[in-house]
Design brief:
- It is a single chain.
- This protein has 370 residues and is α+β, with helices and mostly antiparallel strands.
- It has two domains: 258 residues, Purple Acid Phosphatase, chain A, domain 2; 103 residues, no CATH class.
- Helices cover 24% and strands 26% of the residues.
- Helix 3 crosses helix 7.
- The termini are far apart.
């Protein structure tokens, strides 16, 4: 698919809401819009990846289609949306086995996939032996509206002060990008670390912001007013503790951002205060740098060596990755907690709880109430 650009003049005196990477969480989208008190007076911009990695991909597509009919909504293409559209529309050719393999992997990882949901609605549950060539014409006919909607999503939304694109931009000369291959703009991995700066704000999703964390996991958006970059992706569906991030502006001229978040984790209420540990000394193991050495294995927690420094991690977070002992998405940072704080519960151990507070993950060792 070639890059398409939608040029929009945002209206004055109307709130601008922006979100990305919903990843098949229709209930989460409804909940966060309700939390933000979204109305027909607002403008909603969805920066790609509506589907997969969640339990409600088909429902999410239909929800966004309905919002486009009833509200002022500008959805964009994401790299996952593009891949699904290419397969479902036949643009990618007869490589259905690859999509079927992904669908069954997704079923194990996330409990669902867009293809499974489509087949279930058609009354033809997807099976390993399903003849995909025979199924394709029926899928296209039954879900023509949804497939056409995905294919209609633009690559870039250009407004007065902000440019929205799922992955990122190599530069701001949009006329040079229009008509080129869209995929590099949709899957621009680690865009924020590329060191680019822009005149307009470039608002992206795709790369979870937690992967830019250095000391402890932070899932809130990155807002860089010097380089004019905003990264929205809170790793919803990608990480157990991921979240949807929605940024709101009073109008398009404002820099007064308000953050709304949603996750589907259970919560506990802290009963005791806890002082934070040193952020400078905290260590964080992300998925893209996860090799460790075992020092002492325990039933609940283990001592490992990470970049030459000892670290205590949950034993169940340790796994073998292609012959390399690995551990991901954990930290030894202890959160600042006050009595009465509501904490999103990620893992409960006898020694303490791995939790998330205000979009930051870490440890809480005090008493709590379920």
């Amino acid at each position: 698919m070639n890059t398409t650009i939608r040029r929009v003049t945002l209206p004055d005196h109307r709130r601008i809401l922006m979100i990305s990477d919903i990843h098949g969480h229709a209930d989460g989208l409804r909940a966060i819009l309700e939390k933000a008190r979204f109305t027909k007076d607002d403008v909603l911009i969805i920066v790609g990846d509506l589907i997969e990695k969640g339990p409600q991909s088909l429902e999410t597509v239909r929800l966004v289609m309905e919002l486009c009919r009833t509200h002022t909504v500008y959805p964009l293409m994401g790299n996952v949306d593009l891949w699904r559209w290419e397969f479902l529309s036949g643009q990618r050719g007869p490589d259905w086995q690859r999509m079927k393999n992904y669908a069954f992997n997704a079923l194990g990882w996330w409990g669902s996939s867009l293809l499974h949901e489509m087949c279930e609605e058609m009354g033809e549950p997807l099976a390993r032996e399903t003849d995909m060539d025979a199924l394709l014409p029926r899928v296209r006919k039954h879900f023509k509206a949804e497939i056409d909607f995905l294919g209609s999503l633009p690559t870039i939304l250009n407004t007065q002060r902000m440019i929205f694109v799922h992955g990122g931009l190599p530069h701001e000369r949009l006329d040079e990008l229009e008509g080129t291959d869209a995929f590099p703009l949709l899957k621009f991995d680690d865009f924020y670390s590329a060191g680019l700066s822009f005149q307009k704000y470039v608002v992206t999703g795709h790369w979870p912001t937690v992967l830019c964390s250095k000391t402890y996991p932070v899932y809130k958006p990155i807002i860089d007013p010097e380089r004019h970059i905003i990264c929205l992706d809170g790793a919803c569906g990608v990480k157990t503790e991921g979240q949807l991030n929605l940024l709101a502006l009073p109008d398009w001229t404002s820099d007064d951002f308000t953050l709304y978040t949603w996750d589907d984790l259970p919560t506990i209420t802290a009963l005791e205060a806890q002082a934070p540990s040193s952020a400078e000394e905290a260590r964080y193991i992300p998925w893209n740098d996860h090799a460790v050495e075992m020092l002492k294995q325990g039933e609940e927690v283990s001592q490992v060596l990470y970049h030459g420094k000892p670290m205590t991690v949950p034993t169940q977070f340790i796994f073998d990755h292609n012959g390399v002992l690995s551990c991901i998405d954990t930290t030894d940072y202890e959160l600042e907690v006050r009595p009465g704080d509501r904490l999103s519960l990620i893992l409960k151990l006898s020694c303490g709880c791995f939790v998330k507070k205000d979009s930051v993950s870490g440890w809480y060792f005090g008493r709590y109430e379920d």
